[in-house]
Amino acid sequence: MRTPTSVTGKDCCGARCVGLPTCRARTAFTLVELLVSLALLAVAAGIIVPRMSRSMGRSELRETTGQFAYTAKAARQYAMARRQACTMEIDLDHGTYAVTELHGTGKERASQLTQTSWLKIGRWPGSIRVSAYQTPDGLMAMTGIQRLSFLPDGTTSGASIRFVHETDEYQVIVHPHSGQVVLGDATTTTFAEDQYDLGD
Fold this sequence. Notes:
By secondary structure, the chain is of the alpha+beta class. The protein has helices spanning 20-27, 31-82, and strands spanning 8-10, 16-18, 86-91, 96-103, 110-113, 122-123, 129-134, 140-141, 145-150, 159-165, 168-174, 181-185. The strands form three sheets. Strands 3, 4, 5, 6 and 9 form a five-stranded antiparallel sheet that branches.
């Protein structure tokens, strides 16, 4: 007597089995296996995601300090090329900075934004904060608008500014005598470097 094909067939391993539901049950995941897999994925995500976030934050911090240092160097070069002093105005409250020049004469002399394609308004992201702004004579500030001056002879008023993201801290130093701009880890970059070098 012939067995109906709907009842007897071969499973994926070539063995005889009765009915399709039985074959499907053998190849499916059990609830326990599914729960274990989800638990492993959750543990892996808990380890990887914070590390990725820290790495991205550190990269953003390096980019922020690099952009700030570039603007300071460009402002110094601009003052020397134009033979006219300019100022880098740093708004610690709103996280912005821009290069300005004095225009006009007498009482009408006023500060105006420098309009060039390579000296634009800069901004640091909300995830980064400034822990301190310090002048060479030791004055500290954490709020308000700070002004860093660049003179035609290449010297500056000098300042250091510390950018922080979580536990990472980077510092940009603009030396007053040489005008040299230095950036790096806040624990190793200080004002103690030679103030009488020839700049960059």
